[in-house]
Design a protein that fits this description.
The complex is a heterodimer.
Chain A (H helix, E strand, L loop, with lengths): L8 E8 L5 H10 L6 E5 L11 E4 L4 E3 L8 E3 H10 L8 E5 L7 H9 L1 H6 E11 L3 H5 L3 H9 L2 E5 L6 H14 L4 E4 L37 E7 L2 E8 L6 E9 L9 H8 L3 E4 L4 E2 L6 E5 L5 E8 L3 E7 L9 E4 L2 E2 L4 E4 L10 E9 L4 H15 L3 E8 L6 E8 L2 E9 L6 E9 L3 H9 L4
Parallel strand pairs in A: 1-6, 1-7, 2-3, 2-6, 7-8, 8-9, 13-15, 14-16
Antiparallel strand pairs in A: 4-5, 10-17, 10-20, 11-16, 11-18, 12-15, 12-17, 18-19, 21-25, 22-23, 22-25, 23-24
Chain B lengths: L8 H9 L9 E8 L4 E6 L5 E6 L3 E6 L5 E6 L5 E6 L5 E6 L3 E6 L5 E6 L5 E6 L5 E6 L2 E6 L4 E4 L9 E4 L5 E6 L1 E7 L7 E5 L3 E6 L5 E6 L4 E5 L5 E4 L9 E3 L5 E4 L5 E5 L10 E3 L6 E6 L5 E6 L3 E6 L6 E6 L4 E6 L5 E6 L3 E7 L1
Antiparallel strand pairs in B: 1-32, 2-3, 3-4, 4-5, 6-7, 7-8, 8-9, 10-11, 11-12, 12-13, 14-15, 15-16, 16-17, 18-19, 19-20, 20-21, 22-23, 23-24, 24-25, 26-27, 27-28, 28-29, 30-31, 31-32
The chains are: A alpha/beta, B mainly beta.
């Protein structure tokens, strides 16, 4: 037997609705001087303006697999085409599969998991999804494919940023983040992006099983932003430009003690947001109050100005329902801008898509292997159709090594990784899917602790 | 469909072997040539004059079958050959290309008669009838039938998805095509299908039994599907570790050898494999890539992705005869009609000719 370890050829799957800029990005990738020989499998007639690369047109053929896994579908055309391509001596260093605008990325991804020949020669690098920042809203509610393309992505490009305001972009990013908590999100104009952000991303590499945005793993808050300010006594002008959509925004203002951290007052802020609200028309005053929320009434276009009225100078925290950046908000006193001493973002819960969400679980301790297997088995059986991606690192009782895993629908891939050593044993995992029951997943997982 | 279970194939095999006194067999290497390209298709001409080897990049190399010396080199396709096929008498050679073309050559001087368009960007199959001088092609959803001059006889109705394989019946002027959704049986005379064998599965290869009674398919979902041609009844063989692309019938139509993993799995199909357990021949450490029963008799050759080839005698109690380790992944094994010579090709482009002694 010859022991030649062939380097696996990376495959990037490019998805995105028609008009999102896939062809533009593809042309950039092909013309960029990266020294790679790239083969492109196209499912849609694009205008690839480059001819030294290999472009193969393919007709998408989705086959169900009779392997007891009801949601397991593969792309027969890819198996045929890539199987042949990989036999050629003039090897390609990189493969890009461009899907049609209306494609569910599931079958493409599963093809690389299910077919032994594919796995022996290629590795799925990442799903890169382009989003038309201006028009995606029209499809976000109605199109399953758009949701799946976002949910499956390792890299999301919010493209055509030149056509929308920063506020709108912030709102879109927040919305998309709520659906897919782990993807890297970049804002692009004309699909212009550094190649290393879209190629060789290693999104399916088990070693990168968990690079979760820390913001994501927090509990959900009814506000998206807080800023701690040092206010002088007097009126401060808080001015917001209508973002075209929201007619109100809830704002809470709490007085802080000296050197107090916002973390200590989060529970109080949550209570404040679930308590009494007072409608506050433009021009009127916002005063610090521990149990009264200000519901700012906003004109959806133009400036809305409010007075933050401070009688005692000192430290105050302002909690806002939406990110102030969405409204290009400014805070000033006598025309001098005031910046917060400290500010932070929170993961929004009110913008959750009804259907698509990410559920992250972070729990210390060791897991009972048998219980875990039963639980995971049950989840994959019953929820496999709805789970698009999952990944994580687990601490199994009695095992010296970290266990890393990832999965697509019902397909699961895992192995022991490096030893825990002296580091704290803990479990982090994430599910991205449709109709996920957060509490049920968390409770189920907790029940697997040894 | 039936899930196959216990049976006694070994007993049957044992009784056969009682007659022949086992003698050690070995591979005797005769000749090797390299074309420096992955050999995707390798075929002896029916008149046994030539061996043609198709490189995946687009060239066909023709060797003298006796001396093994290179004789012709044909620039067949600009973008990859899929398959080559000889006409029944060896007068013609055709190739199917990933450039959408079929190239038709005569074999006196190996000059081209015609370039034909199969109807789609990528020609999957081209196969000559074993009974007359016509050939069929499959490209995308199109099936076409051609004369030896390259004239179109039939353009069959479009199939529902890409036709992945096409096989002539060894027993009559019929052929079968496979696409997602099952098999279709056709007659050369008409474009009306004779029969549709419906099955919701993804087929990779078709193997028609020499007596024409059965059609076996190797499938993407690690199964072998088995059709009884006349009744349309089917069986499914489960339990393979990987997709099944290697199928070979013995000349009596009794044994069907299947790959789909590292073990050679041989089914006894007389009267039916239903309810039987197959023979499992172990010895390959990697997945099989080629299987070939000899033209007459029960010798079986197997080749794998590591480059190992093995010889088995299905009629003996201890089936394993000999093996050899070659440097490149085995892509094709084909027997010569003399029943003792064979040619083997690999992924590095080497064609080796052996005899069995």
């Amino acid at each position: 037997m010859t022991l030649v370890t062939e380097k696996l050829v990376p495959v990037t799957v490019l998805t995105g609705f028609l008009g999102s800029g896939k062809t533009t990005l593809l042309n950039r990738i092909l013309t960029e001087n990266h020294g790679k020989r790239i083969a492109v499998i196209e499912n849609e007639f694009g205008e690839i303006g480059v001819d030294q690369e290999l472009v193969i047109g393919a007709e998408e053929e989705i086959f169900e697999m009779n392997n007891g896994c009801i949601c397991c579908t593969v792309r027969g055309d890819l198996i045929r085409i890539l199987g042949n391509l990989m036999k050629r001596k003039d090897k390609f260093d990189y493969i890009i599969v461009e899907t049609t605008g209306m494609a569910d990325p599931g079958p493409v991804v599963q093809t690389f998991f299910v077919d032994d020949e594919m796995q022996a020669k290629m590795r799925l690098d990442a799903i890169v999804t382009l989003v038309d920042a201006k028009h995606v809203w029209e499809h976000l509610e109605t199109s399953d494919e758009v949701k799946q393309q976002i949910a499956f992505a390792d890299v999301l490009l919010l493209n055509k940023t030149d056509l929308v305001s920063t506020g709108e972009l912030n709102r879109l990013e927040a919305r998309i983040r709520s659906m897919n908590a782990t993807a890297k999100i970049y804002r692009t104009e004309n699909a212009a992006i550094e190649m290393e952000k879209v190629l060789e991303v290693e999104g399916f590499d088990l070693n990168r099983a968990l690079e979760i945005d820390p913001e994501f793993l927090e509990p959900e808050y009814p506000f998206e932003w807080s800023g701690v300010y040092e206010f002088e006594a007097g009126d401060h002008e808080f001015s917001l430009r209508g973002n075209g959509t929201d007619e109100t925004m809830d704002v809470g203002l709490i007085e802080f003690a000296e050197n107090e951290f916002v973390e200590n007052r989060l529970l109080q802020a949550v209570l404040l947001f679930s308590g009494k609200t007072r409608e506050t028309p433009a021009g009127s005053a916002i005063e610090p109050h521990n149990d009264l929320l200000n519901r700012l009434l906003l004109a959806v276009t133009g400036e809305n100005s409010f007075r933050i009225k401070i009688s005692r100078p000192g430290r105050y925290a302002l909690f806002t329902e939406h990110k102030p950046a969405e409204f290009d908000a400014t805070l000033s006193m006598n025309d001098v801008g005031i910046n917060p001493v400290f500010s932070r973002d929170y993961k929004p819960d009110h913008e959750h898509d009804e259907e698509i969400s990410s559920v992250g679980i972070n729990i210390d301790g060791d897991l009972d292997n048998r219980k875990l297997n039963q639980w995971l088995g049950r989840i994959l059986q019953t929820k496999g159709m709805d789970i698009f991606r999952m990944k994580g690192i687990l601490s199994i009782k009695g095992a010296a090594d970290r266990f890393v895993f990832q999965g697509v629908h019902m397909l699961f891939d895992g192995r022991p990784d490096k030893p825990w050593g002296n580091s704290k044993r803990a479990n982090s995992l994430i599910f991205i899917g449709r109709n996920l029951n957060r509490q049920e997943l968390i409770d189920g997982f907790k029940a697997c602790l040894a | 469909m039936a899930n196959l279970s216990a049976a006694d194939i070994l007993g049957a095999a044992k009784s056969k072997s009682a007659f022949s006194k086992p003698k050690a067999m070995k591979f005797n290497p005769l000749r090797e040539e390299n074309i420096n390209d992955h050999i995707i298709s390798l075929k002896y001409s029916p008149d046994q004059k030539w061996i043609a080897a198709a490189g995946i990049s687009g060239k066909i190399h023709v060797f003298d079958a006796v001396s093994g010396r290179p004789a012709h080199s044909l620039n067949a396709h600009t973008f990859g050959v899929r398959m080559i096929s000889w006409s029944r008498g060896g007068e013609f050679l055709t190739s199917a290309g990933q450039d959408g073309k079929i190239r038709l050559f005569e074999t006196n001087g190996f000059s081209e008669i015609e370039t034909l368009f199969a109807g789609s960007d990528w020609v999957e199959c081209v196969r000559w009838s074993p009974h007359s001088d016509i050939f069929a092609s499959a490209a995308g959803k199109k099936i076409r039938l051609w004369t030896a001059n390259g004239e179109l006889i039939h353009d069959y109705p479009d199939q529902l998805s890409t036709v992945v394989d096409l096989a002539w019946s060894p027993a009559s002027d019929e052929f079968a095509t496979a696409c997602y959704g099952g098999l279709t049986r056709w007659r050369a005379e008409t474009t009306v299908p004779l029969h549709k064998y419906q099955w919701k599965g993804s087929t990779l290869v078709i193997a028609w039994s020499p007596n024409g009674k059965y059609i076996a398919t190797g499938d993407q979902d690690s199964t072998v599907h088995f059709w009884i041609v006349k009744s349309g009844k089917d069986l499914q063989m489960y339990g393979y570790p990987t997709k099944v692309k290697e199928l070979s019938w013995d000349s009596s139509s009794r044994f069907l050898a299947t790959g789909g993993g590292g073990a050679v799995t041989v089914w006894n199909c007389e009267p039916s494999p239903q309810g039987t357990l197959p023979m499992q021949l172990n010895g390959h450490q990697n997945y099989l890539s080629s299987l070939a029963f000899q033209p007459r008799g029960l010798l079986l050759l197997s080749g794998d992705l590591d480059g190992k080839i093995s010889l088995w005698d299905i009629g003996r109690e201890s089936q394993f005869q000999c093996s050899a380790n070659l440097p490149g992944e085995i892509t094709n094994i084909v027997w010569a009609n003399d029943n003792t010579r064979f040619a083997v090709s690999d992924g590095d482009g080497t064609v080796r000719i052996y005899s069995i002694e």
